[in-house]
Amino acid sequence: MTVSGISTIGLIGSGHIGSQLARLAVERGYDVVLSNSRGPETLQDLVAELGEHARAATPEEAGAAGDIVVVTVPLHAYRDVPVAPLAGKVVIDTNNYYPARDGHIAELDDESTTTSELLQTHLPESRVVKAFNHIRAAELTTDGAPAGTSARRALVIAGDDPEARATVAALIDELGFDVVDLGPLAEGWRIQRDTPGYVKRVGADELRAFLASAKRYRDM
Question: Which residue ranges form the domains of the chain, and what is each CATH number?
Fold first, then answer.
């Protein structure tokens, strides 16, 4: 069973999170098109593992092929994400800001914007939804459970387009997790690194409580 309108998931970035999401997606009957910054030939082992429902491509090709596209590259590389192939599409952003890795980004340091709002600005014709940024990659394939399971783990989404959020929520449910909808991208800070809900293995009610108690870095 797959989400209506989605048969192929494009992945721009195929590292820890991207490869795990690809495994989950193929397991659930989706086709995946994987890409990274180093070239399709570097992904052949992963493609071989995933089987006939996976292929490797360039980021532009993965973006064009996906009915929905996951951007899961280090934040400092977000400007390298191809713009034109993603126009009009729902784009999932998994990013977090780590200054030691990404360098300092002034508008994130002063908290005038969020990581996913940066990507949304870079992709003005896409509908960006923040998701999968607050779960350890390895837990994506171990912590999922069927809908209705007691104490099912919950994941957060945020996005400015309600229809896009609904699409991503349906996909996350299909992949094995309950969903807590934060609303607009600007609220995504509530689940950034060092907040109470970050990488916590909890259900929806507890996650909502963590989100409500989150504080900005300047107030910590």
Answer: 8-219 (3.40.50.720)
